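During the second year of the project, the team shifted from modelling isolated chains to modelling whole assemblies. The rationale, set out in the original proposal, was that interfaces cannot be judged from single-chain predictions alone. As a representative example for this report, we include one of the complexes processed in the last quarter. Its constituent sequences, exactly as entered into the pipeline, are reproduced here:
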Amino acid sequence: GDSVTQMEGPVTLSEEAFLTINCTYTATGYPSLFWYVQYPGEGLQLLLKATKADDKGSNKGFEATYRKETTSFHLEKGSVQVSDSAVYFCALSRGTYKYIFGTGTRLKVLA
Amino acid sequence: DAGVIQSPRHEVTEMGQEVTLRCKPISGHDYLFWYRQTMMRGLELLIYFNNNVPIDDSGMPEDRFSAKMPNASFSTLKIQPSEPRDSAVYFCASSFRLDTGELFFGEGSRLTVL
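Output from the structure prediction step:
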């Protein structure tokens, strides 16, 4: 069945450091891929998405590219801020109600 | 427009008590989801509604759990009787289209069963 694997956290970085959170998926065909972010005490919110191969999703300085050849959707940001501290979830969907979420990666950014 | 509204935000109860969690989805969203989040199991889909009709409740852990959606603007998740292992954060989410993949989550209800 479909699955999402993301790197385990926590990830601790200094402010202005470069961020990469790895995400790989297993699925047949071309699912849509997403990154959700969960700030402390809040629900998940969509950060970015890509619906087809080679698409790049971007938002708030974060980027991720849908790589069909490596079945990956890694999240990157060039310079993180303390306010980016949160839990990040990679997810996929085939356009049905069944969203497959990864286990989440906690990011802590130190000033 | 207001987002998905859940209540209560926090609930502490004793084992055996009935718990009712409430959700108001975003107006115009035909799809509603209840998820449970725990450290051990991550985010689990409990039940999914389409136009107020339960479509898939295979994620509901036991008969102690039930969910209803009497109208387009209100849903409840009930646990009766509650047990300590039900302690988790319960999220309601809604969506207007499934193919865009964007779920709008509420802030969650943190349940602690003593």
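The mean pLDDT of chain B is 94. Residues 20 and 78 of chain B are 4 Å apart (CA to CA).
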